Each structure stands twice: as structure tokens, then as C-alpha cells.
């Protein structure tokens, strides 16, 4: 990989990690379901005017939009609002690699390799360490919501693989059109929407960041790199996301990094790396593995 493209890959991982700081700021003004709906609406409305049809059956667009958009990010934002530190969430979400391998085995008949099984066990041990540390001082049900968000992400990966979109960026744009309406309806029934009248400037900046920097810029660059170099070369850089996520939230938001949490984070990342890398078929440069093009945050 050329140095400039390596720098771009690291930059996207940094943007996705810092995204968790933006999420925290956005949730200061907006309730979680409303913020999730606005994130996808702001990302989709300009972009959808410049892309063609998604090139897959509409049922896949709707299914992935509901599972990957509404469910994954709705659960994530609710969990962070309920007290799970944003940086910790960036780490726990990486457990999607375990769920993806599990769902692929059950639903697609893809038998996990020994390396994947080892990696899943290691990552699970790390999550137990992190959960033990967090459960001593934080709301465990909210932590479980982050795990449910990771499982939703994994299901979105499986659905995306079944859809096999030839242009993943175009597919993402159309997927982003789906979540706003059901989320806005649910938000109207369950949340206080007064924030729409006078949102904090920091929350508006955060909304712009999660919609345009994290979603449009991040995913656009990521898919471009995968088309050029293949998923095998690019995907490992996603393991930097929780590194940037936990460090940036510690610096900006003052989130605590305990020894047990840092050790658990390291164990999770080792396990996720083993699960992802030992189970991946080599993808030739210029060809996309659409199941691995789903954005990280």
C-alpha cells in the first residue's frame, strides 16, 4: 500500500474513533433515537441526489437499513445515553467480528476455522474482563445494549453479503434513507423532541461530523481503498478505531481508563484480529468483499 493510502486508512480509523466523541456531544442535546434518525437523514439527503439506484433488490436495502441503521445505531446511542462510556462502546462494538462469524456459520453454512474459534474465545475473554470492570461501577443492562448493537452490526454484515451490492458506497447511501422514518416515529412516541427547537451549537457540529465525516467521507475513502487493495490489506486498520476511540474520549471527555479496562481492550483486539484475519478468504485487489465494507461507527 502506498504511503498516502496507508495514511488515508489510518485517517479513516481516526475519524471513526473520534466519532464517539462527537456522538457523546450530540447526545447532550438530542435524545438517542432522534439523533440516530438525524444522522442518517443528513448523510443520505445530499448524497442520494448524486448516486444511481442501489443495483440490488429493494428488500435488501430495507432489511439492511432497518438492521444496520435503525437497530444497530439506535441501540448504540441509547446505550451511550444510558451511561456506557463512548470510548468503551467503540471497543465493545468490535465484538461484531465474533457475531459475524457465528451468524455466518448458522445462516450461511460457513464453517469457522480453528483460528476463528481461537480468536472468538480470546475476544470473549476480553469482553468478560471489560464487562466485569464496567459492571462494578456502571449499568450492566446498558452494556448489554452495546453487545446487542454489535450483534445487529453482524447481522447487517450477513445481509449485506447476501445482497452482494456491486457498488457498496451507493448501497450505503440508499441504506441510510431507510432508518429516519421509523426512528422518527419511535422517537415521537417515546422521546422529548424539544431539542429540535434550540439545539446546542456543539450538538449541530457533532451531527455534521457523524453524518458527513464519519459516514460519507469515512466510508467513501474506505471502499475506495478496498477496491484498490482488497479487504485483506485494508480491514485490519479498523482495529485502530477503538484505540482512537478510547484515547480521544479519555482526552476530550475525561473518560477513565482503568488497568483492567486497558488489559481487557488489548485482549479483545487480539481476539478480534485473530477472528477477522484467520477467517477471511483472500480478496484480489480491485474486487470487493461486500460483507466487510460496512462502516464501523
Low-pLDDT ranges: 281-293
First-last Cα distance: 24 Å
How many alpha or pi helices? 13
Over the alpha carbons, how many angstroms does the gyration radius reach? 18 Å
**Oligomerization status of the protein chains:** single chain
- pLDDT averaged residue by residue: 84
Q: From N to C, what is the helix and strand string?
A: HHHHHHHHHHHHH
Bin the helical content.
Answer: over 70%
Shape descriptor reads: globular
Question: Largest sheet, if any?
Answer: none
The total beta strand count reads 0
**Computed structural class:** mainly alpha
Strand portion: under 5%
Give an overview in words:
The longest helix is centred in the C-terminal third of the chain and has 29 residues, at 201-229. The chain is globular. Helix 2 crosses helix 10 and helix 3 (58-81) packs across helix 8. With 297 residues, the protein is mainly α. The model is unreliable at 281-293 (pLDDT under 50). The chain is built from 13 helices and no strands.
